[in-house]
Amino acid sequence: MRSTAAPIGGTRAGRAAGRLPVPGGPAKLDVVVTTVASDSHTWNLVYVQLLLEELGHRVTNLGACVPDDLLVAECLRRRPDLVVVSSLNGHGFTDGLRLIGRLRAERELAAVPAVIGGKLGIAGPAARDRGDLLRAAGFDLVLDDGAGTASFRSFVGRLTAGVRS
Q: Are strands 141-144 and 114-118 parallel, antiparallel or unpaired?
């Protein structure tokens, strides 16, 4: 499907070309991984966690059915370099709009990069404006179901740890 980042090579190829952080290297990010309050799926969260850890980043996985208030509180406490929201139940669009509004309403979290991906709606690929609306609401990257990992890897590879505006 659609995404806004340019793809790059796989993990080994990306590291060899100097495009991805080396585990333990200076670009290590603190990442919070979560799903939306209505989503009880967990395997996607484990997959995203393992992918980020493979790229050398520290991950806090909040698990499934995370209430908005809990995510906001954890992000205020942890001050992550990135928030990743993964959803498989088809309510990612609706819940994601509400969630990103809550994150962006906090001055301390207004500039933290945020990604949402997965099955974001139940209307199928015909709902092409979902990504535009989620980006306009405050997500930096939107990955609809089937987008693959290249755009995500590229986006994460461009982030800098500890930078706050």
A: parallel
Angle between helix 92-105 and 129-137 (nearest 10): 20
Tell me the pLDDT tens digit for each residue of 20-70: 445 545 469 999 999 999 989 999 999 999 999 999 999 999 999 999 999
Rounded to 10 degrees, what is the CA torsion of 31, 32, 34, 36? -110
**What's the distance, CA 157 to chain centroid?**
13
Tell me the C-alpha distance between 37 and 42, whole Å. Answer: 12
Q: What type of residue is 150?
A: A
- pTM for the full predicted model: 0.81
- DSSP labels for 53-91? HHTT-EEEE--SS--HHHHHHHHHHH--SEEEEEE-SS-
The tokens of 146 are what? 């089937």
CB atoms under 10 Å from CB of 95, counted, come to 21
